[in-house]
Amino acid sequence: MSFDLVFFGGTGDLTWRKLMPALFQAFRHGKLPEGGRILAVARDEQSDERYREWLKERFREVDEGKRPSDEEFQRFAGLIHYRRMDLSQPDHYQGLKDWLDARNADTVVLYLATSPHLFTGICQQLGAVGLNHDKVRVVLEKPLGHDLASAQEINRTVRSVFHERQAFRIDHYLGKPSVQNLMALRFGNALFEPLWRRESIANIQITLAEQLGVGTRGAFYDGTGALRDMIQNHALQLLTMIAMEPPASNDADAIRDEKLKVLRALKPFTRESVGRDVVRGQYRAGMCGGHPVPGYLEEVKVPPDSHCETFVALRTEVENWRWAGVPFYLRTGKRLTARDAQIVVNFRPVPHQIFPGASVPNRLVIKLQPEDGLELQLLAQKGSGHGEQLTPVTLDLDFDKAFATQRVGAYERLLLEAIAGRLNLFVRSDEQEQAWRWVEPILDAWAEDGNGPRPYAAGSWGPAAASALVARDGFSWAEEQ
């Protein structure tokens, strides 16, 4: 199958830090289909060869295990082309179409690795020159909009040019191997399904923690914040995967229909419940990773009076028969104790305990990063003495060790899925808009709250109020247990 993959924003950070390295890994693993071309478009005036040299220099900053040798890069670079393009000029889109039509590949993937405010204009121009025919797919990076109204406007424009089946909205967490194994865990094994409900599960915690601060992205981040950056997309997508009902099939729309039902069943926020069930924070100077780091307000291009949140913890419920009464706790933040992304399923204690001192319920930990695997935490006796206390033990599955073959990274998987035209790992427009609809009352309540976010020290797990949020129900975060 021949394909042309076009990166709008071909000299941007996303392209050289994430997308090109992911494509190289697919090439290295022999998974990239034969007959492909990769075209980077940007405003700079340069030749194919000059762009390839520029990219080769950027690859030196990629993680060591993912860097190509000179011989590997030379072979990979043979697929790469460059074209100067001013996205405001209609004739440049016609030139792109002529370049693509001269080859007439089986599939054309147009990846918009640009600022979201350019999405509508690019799509309109693509439609105007006929680059929306059945062979074309358009990939849209997050954040898709700043609020519900802007997301709806982008989606209206995209749908006016492309069919929904041609639109691939990226959430790179859906490409992570552990997230993919959520489907296998739940719907490929008889073990968990009878327990996957309110009668057996006490609470579910989703943590997306980062040690890094905002770095040089202060201006961008200050207009975004943790709620828009992580909760509205990544955390809610993980929640839907955990809470969804079994789909009728592995078809993309069957899966996305069930995810949408979860989003619609989320307990809506009111101004009162935002104050009670949502905690926002902002990091101050502290020690992170053994080094002193500045506070958010001291970061480059951050206003000294900013109320932007760098931490969010919230409590919600899925109001349906399976999950009624089970709290879901979502948490994300920058400059926290560790880089740690995980889902923790805390089971209820046994109804009648016959062993002394056995107070730790079973727990399933789905690890997303930095490790990738599953932990099932059980209770067992060390010895055979009568009346001996039970001790926590862990069944640990490390996916990297369990599967000897080279594992596929998130962006690598998503790019290959987009080329193949499979929509299972991409977000449908109604899902995305429903997620915005759910978080918007939080944004509205914060806009009217002059108190701003709670301070927390860099290197901690966030404001103390986040622990109190969980403790109010008689529970604690995983690291506090």
Automatic annotation (TrEMBL):
Provide the Gene Ontology terms for cellular component: cytosol
- NCBIfam families listed in its UniProt record: PRK12853.1-3, zwf
Q: What is this protein called?
A: Glucose-6-phosphate 1-dehydrogenase
**Taxonomic source organism:** Roseateles puraquae
Residues binding NADP(+) are 43, 86-87, 142
Which reaction does this enzyme catalyse, per its entry? D-glucose 6-phosphate + NADP(+) = 6-phospho-D-glucono-1,5-lactone + NADPH + H(+)
User: For substrate, which residues are the binding ones?
Assistant: 172, 176, 210, 229, 334
| Catalytic residues (UniProt) | 234
Q: What does the record give as EC number?
A: 1.1.1.49
* Pathway where this protein functions: Carbohydrate degradation; pentose phosphate pathway; D-ribulose 5-phosphate from D-glucose 6-phosphate (oxidative stage): step 1/3
Pfam name, any one: G6PD_N
User: Which GO annotations describe the biological process of this protein?
Assistant: glucose metabolic process; pentose-phosphate shunt, oxidative branch
Coiled-coil annotation reads: none
Question: Is NADP set as a keyword in this record?
Answer: yes
